[in-house]
Amino acid sequence: MVTGVIALLAVLFYFRFRYTSPFAATWDEVDFALALHRYDLLAMQPHFPGYPFFILGGMLVHVFIHNPTQALAVFNGIVVASASIPMYLLARQHVSRISASIVVLVMQTNGYLSILTMQPMSEGAALGVLWWYIWSLFLALHRKETTMKILPLVLFAVLMGIRLSYAPFGIALLILWRQDWKRYKKASRLIAFIVLALLLQCVWLGALIFSEGGLVGFLKLSYGFLQGHFTEWGGAITQTKEPLYGRLYRLVVHNIGWTGMFVQSVWLAVIGLTSFLLYWRRFSLRQYLIEHWLVVLLLLVYFVWNLLAQNIDKPRHSFPIVMLLLFSLIVFLSKNRKGTRILFVGLAMAQLFTSISLMKEQAIENPAIYQLAQYLKKQEGEFIVYTWEETRVMEYLHVPYEHKRFYKYDYFLQDKKYHTNDTIYVTNHLVDGFRRQGIEVSGHLEEEARFHSNEIFDPVYNDIILYKWID
C-alpha cells in the first residue's frame, strides 16, 4: 500500500513540474516575476513586504529555468513536495504508517493546492514551510531539548520571509513559551527565546531595510502599504461595505468549501460530502478537539484574521484554513475506522485526475488578460486602452500600443482630451471602478470583445470585456 501511495505521489509531482504556469497574468504575479531580474520594492518588484526568501528561492531556480514565472512555480513545487515529510510525521502521531501515507496522498492531491503550487505566487512555498513549522511546534511541545525550542523560531522567521500574512500562526510561539515558563520558571530563559525570535526576524527585515537604503525609507513604504491595505485596495473588512454575514458566507461556502476543498468540481463535492456523511455519526467533536487542539487553534486564529483583515475575493488567502481542516479531519477519521483507507484512496485518485486536468489547463490556456493583449495587437489605426490594473500585465508583455491605468474618473477625462483622433478602449474593470465612485458611464460604452479564462485560476480578472468609448 505504501509503495502504491509513493507511486501516485510521484505521478502527481511529475505533472506539477511538467505543467508549471508560464504566465504572469495578474499584478502580483508580474511583481514577483520582475523581482527575479531586479529586486526593488519601490518599483514593486515585488510589492511590499518583499517576500525575500521566496524571491531568493526563485532566483536560485532561475539559474536553471529561464522563464521567471516557471522558476518561481518550480521553487513552490519543491517546497510543497518536501511538506509531505512533516505531514507524514504529524499524522504518524495518531495513525498507522499506511494510514499516515494515505493522509499525505489526500492532502497533496488536493486540486487547489496543485493550482497554487504551480503559480508564480508565494502561497505555495508558504504552505510548504507552514507544515514544517507546525511539525517543529509539535516537537518543541513534546521534547525538552533546547534545540527543539529554537527550531520553531527559525522556521517561523523563514515563513515570515516568504509570506507575512501568515503572521497569526505565530500565536503558537506564545503557547510554547508559556509551557517553557511553567516548566523552568526562568525569566532569563524566556527573554532569551523572545530576543532570539526577534533577531531571526531581523534577518529578512534587515535585508529589506538595506535594499530600501535605510530605515526611514522602509518605514514610509511600510506605512503606505498598511494604509492602502486597510483603507483602499486590501479587501479588509475596514474598507468594504459588505455585511459581516456576507463575508462569512463567502469565506466558508465559496472559499473553504467550494473552491479550497472541491476546486469547484461537482463530482468531487459529491464524493467529499458523501464520505463525511458516512462517518459523521461516529465523529466525536470533543475527542477531535482534544487530539488536534493545536491545529484547531491555528485554524481558528487564521480564520478570524482571514475574515476581518484579508481580501476574501481571492480564495487563495483562505487556503491555509482548508489545509489545516482537511488534515485534522482526515487523520481523525482514519483512526480506528474500517473502510476509511479505501475511501480516502478513492478520493485521492479522483483529486489526482482533477489536479492534472486543472494544471494542464492553467499551463496551456491563455489567461483572459493575455487574450486581450493579443486581440489589441491585431487592431489597426491609432488607439489607446484605459485599464484598471490590466496595464501592469501589458507592461510586462511589452505590447506595442499605448495603455494607461486610471483609478479616478476626472483624471481619465483629462487624459482622454489628448486622444481626440484616436480610438479609445476601456475595460469593464475600469468601468466598475468608476461605478464604485458613483459614476455611471453606460451611455458611452459600445462592447467590442469579451475574453474569458477559468475563474479558479484568477477570480478577479478571469472575465474581461473590452468597450469602445463613444463621446
Describe the protein's architecture and organization.
This protein is of the alpha/beta class and 471 residues long. The chain has two domains: 2-364, no CATH class; 368-469, no CATH class. Helix content is 65%, strand content 6%. The protein contains 22 helices and five strands. The chain has helices spanning 2-18, 27-35, 52-62, 68-82, 84-91, 97-108, 111-117, 123-142, 146-162, 171-184, 187-211, 215-231, 244-261, 266-279, 285-291, 293-309, 319-334, 340-364, 368-377, 390-397, 409-416, 428-436; strands at 383-387, 402-405, 423-427, 445-452, 463-469. Helix 20 links the parallel strand 1 (383-387) and strand 2 (402-405). Helix 4 (68-82) packs parallel to helix 8 and helix 9 runs parallel beside helix 11. The longest helix is centred in the middle third of the chain and has 25 residues, at 187-211. It is globular and about 75 Å long.
Helix content class: 55-70%
- Using the CA coordinates, give the radius of gyration: 24 Å
How much of the sequence lies in strands comes to: 5-15%
Question: Largest beta sheet: what is the strand line-up?
Answer: 2-1-3-5-4
Measured distance between first and last alpha carbons: 69 Å
Total helical elements: 22
Beta strand count: 5
Our count of domains comes out at 2
The structural class is alpha/beta
Main β-sheet description: 5 strands, mixed
